[in-house]
Amino acid sequence: MMMGRKVLTLACAAGILACGACFLPPLPAPKPAPPPLVLSLQSIHTIRLEMVNEPGADHLDVAGLATQVANLISDQSLHRVKAYVSKQDGDGDAVLRILITNENATLDATPGSPDQWDFEIGTSATLTRADGTNIWTEKDGEISFLRSFTQPHPADLWSDPEVHERVRNRLSNKIVYPMLYGH
């Protein structure tokens, strides 16, 4: 009876060492804390976001783009700042105005890739406090990416869901990260 308990104890100890202490991969490193906010947001708790297209730049869904930017602002500020989309004057502590200045899609001239299209979207953005003080400005912002189409038809380029997804992700990152973190 006593020998059985000793054998069981040794078997358990060996199992614990084999599975937990010796042969498992190391635990992942803790996720680093986000960088500190560079932008002075001490008195800003809400940002009203307006996004518009210049005439001739009408291929993109500005409502979807604006929502993505607003969500990223809230997420990256760890919900210290609530961003919302509205074209109406509201009670926000600040207003972020984003202008889509151009939308271009051109066939890439690289040899061997006749179905590559180069998308370029120009933007400008301004963050202004409710009292009219300019906090942050980005002029001449641009995002670009390549997208392959097997049977390119100019009318289908801007209706492609992947194009809209890439634009939403890149545009929101291009505006929010420099605005909040200065890079």
Q: Give the biggest beta sheet.
A: 5 strands, mixed
The rounded distance between the terminal residues' Cα atoms is: 69 Å
Structural class: alpha/beta
Q: Any guess at the CATH architecture?
A: 2-Layer Sandwich
Count helical runs.
4
Shape: flat
Give the full name of the CATH homologous superfamily. Answer: Lipoprotein like domain
Q: Kindly state the number of beta strands.
A: 5
Strand content: 25-35%
Helical coverage, percent range:
25-40%
The top-level CATH class is: Alpha Beta
Q: Can you write the helix and strand succession as a string?
A: HEHEEEEHH
Explain what this protein looks like in three dimensions.
The protein is of the alpha/beta class and 183 residues long. The chain has one domain (42-181): 2-Layer Sandwich (Double Stranded RNA Binding Domain). Helices cover 33% and strands 30% of the residues. The protein has 4 helices and 5 strands, in the order H-E-H-E-E-E-E-H-H. Strands 2-1-3-4-5 form a 5-stranded mixed sheet, with helices on one face. A hairpin with an 8-residue loop joins strand 3 and strand 4 (116-129). The termini are far apart. The model has no long low-confidence stretch (mean pLDDT 82).
Which features does this protein show?
Double Stranded RNA Binding Domain, flat, 183 residues, 4 helices, 5-stranded mixed β-sheet, alpha/beta, 33% helix
